[in-house]
Amino acid sequence: MTNIVDIKQLSPITNKGGEIFVPISPQNCDSKNLIMGKVILKAYEELLPHMHDYSDEAFLVVKGRGTLKIESKILPLENNKAYFIPKGQIHQITNDKDCDLELIFSSAPLAPHPSEGDKIVV
Questions:
Q1: 76 preceded by cis ω (within 30°)?
Q2: With CB atoms counted within 10 Å of each terminal CB, which end of the chain scores lower, N or C?
């Protein structure tokens, strides 16, 4: 399996809000311990509130601004800033601006099965 993945060749995940591309994962390359991807939220879109039982998550804002809700705390998301979310914490990202918000994220360690990765919280 290749270890170089062209994100333009991937179909986005869209059932969690926005467009999520995951080029680095066991499904796409030799990664066994982490995933890495890109999130694009158009104006006023949001990711659904979710949590990870097995993984810590970190992300870097590469374009735009928005808000990050971790449990009951709300933080501003700003371009060129990195954020860390420990496993088990409910979090949600919202683009509350009229331009795109883009993030690069990584999660590790991986859940035992992909179906156990994200838990949507309603």
A1: no
A2: C
| pTM exceeds 0.85 | yes
Give residue 90's identity as a one-letter amino acid code. I
Residue 44, Ramachandran bin (φ over 0: left; ψ between -120 and 50: alpha; else beta): left
Q: How many domains does the chain have?
A: 1
In Å, how far are 73, 91, 109 from 60, measured between CA atoms? 19, 15, 18
**Calpha distance 16→25 (Å, rounded):** 18
> How do residues 66-99 score in pLDDT, each as one tens digit?
999 999 999 999 999 999 999 999 999 999 999 9
- The domain spanning residue 91 has which CATH number? 2.60.120.10
Measured in residues, the chain has a length of 122
